[in-house]
Amino acid sequence: MSKTVENWGGNLKFTPTQIYYPTSHEEVVEVVKKARENQQNVRIIGSGHSWTKLINTEDVLVSLDEYQGIVSLDKENNTAVVKAGTKLKLLGELLHEQGLAMENMGDINVQSIAGALSTGTHGTGVEFKTLANQMEEITLVNGKGETVVCSDTNNRDLFKAAQISLGALGIITQIKLRLVPTFKLKYVSVKSTLDETLQHIEKFKADNRNFEFYWFPFTKTVQLKFVNMTTEPVKNVGFAKKFNDVVLENGAFGVLSRISRTFPKVAPRISKISAAAVSEGTYINHSHLIFATQRLVRFNEMEYNVPQENFTTVIKEIEECINQHQFKVHFPIECRWVKADDILISPASDRDSAYIAVHMYKGMEYKPYFEAIEQIFKKYKGRPHYGKMNTLKHEDFAELYPHWDKFNEIREQQDPDGIFLNPYLQGIFKEKVGSRESGVGS
């Protein structure tokens, strides 16, 4: 029976003809072969944390929610083969039990491992690349129903395409991850000003394993987050940190957000209230418990990657733009850093990058704000996070990514009939399609 699917942000709704929940690699092969025979489109959904129309389909939707867990461990070489549907939260727990951890993570852990890595999800830290670089080997079922295994030493071109592939090459079923022994992190939250932060930004990036900050529009207030490895004992966790994450950063902020949605004109004032209440503190725990924070307040998001050297200029232009247009925004702007990599269509391909994310509370008008900020990103050759809102078309991607055409050639080899292409992907890869769609959900 078909049912309507809605993403986390609430901007996407669609009704596939069939939804499959395979429990094995072999069942995935069967689903793909059957769809190919029936000339049906196939898309894959993880946790629905994307805002772009990557998952939309009127035909076959595949969820790997019933295909989670660790397949095998190699503690001598610090690697693990994991099922593609494994949620990051579960993966962190399972690896910790075995004395292993991912070297870096993003700030949300509800996504599936394959979904997060395939869309270019990242953490922060100038010495760390996008999370997909932690892949050592990928097993996928391509558009011909074939099982393909690739790595850096086996079918490397395919591997470099598959690491961030948007689900356009096939369905990833297993991933071998490069891991590290478990470690603890010390998280320090400090309140500062935007001017002070920009003045010391190079030092903050260089002196900390993981560094990021949030700037609150219509104020000069910034929340700095410094995260570094430590051997100190666990500190201020459990109730204290959960209270901070859930009540202070989500509960109270949720109330303020609902006020802003009802009375948009007070949004700038709400931003100032939130800035005044920025939490400061120190927490120490195992890495997988420090990286992730809960997100109970729902929102729409646009995030772009810009060359690291342009970061300060871009932030200043964003501040000027917001002040000039008086956008009704109260969400802080998140800033992170990522090291260059060599994945074909990684946003950080061939350049050290700064990521800047803007948000708008669910139900509030976001388009004028996002469109204005996107123009600034475009001015500095910004590349969007694939799972987050943007308006780019094929011509934009082809210009921004030197290896875009090479990726598309590999995609055509793996999926010659285009069964993994929905209208949005057909548009950005410039395939023939009845009507092209933008990357932003309605």
From TrEMBL:
It is an enzyme of class 1 (oxidoreductase). SUPFAM superfamilies: FAD-binding/transporter-associated domain-like, FAD-linked oxidases, C-terminal domain. Pfam families: ALO, FAD_binding_4. GO terms for molecular function: D-arabinono-1,4-lactone oxidase activity; FAD binding; L-gulonolactone oxidase activity. PROSITE patterns: FAD_PCMH (PS51387), OX2_COVAL_FAD (PS00862). GO terms for biological process: L-ascorbic acid biosynthetic process. Pathway: Cofactor biosynthesis; L-ascorbate biosynthesis. Signal peptide: none annotated. It comes from the Bacteria. Its EC number is 1.1.3.8. Residues 12-182 form the FAD-binding PCMH-type domain. InterPro entries: ALO_C, FAD-bd_PCMH, FAD-bd_PCMH-like_sf, FAD-bd_PCMH_sub1, FAD-bd_PCMH_sub2, FAD-linked_Oxase-like_C, FAD_lactone_oxidase-like, Oxid_FAD_bind_N. Transmembrane segments: none annotated. Keywords: Ascorbate biosynthesis, FAD, Flavoprotein, Oxidoreductase. The keyword Lipid biosynthesis does not apply. GO terms for cellular component: membrane. Belongs to the oxygen-dependent FAD-linked oxidoreductase family. PANTHER family: D-ARABINONO-1,4-LACTONE OXIDASE, L-GULONOLACTONE OXIDASE. This is L-gulonolactone oxidase. It comes from Microscilla marina ATCC 23134.
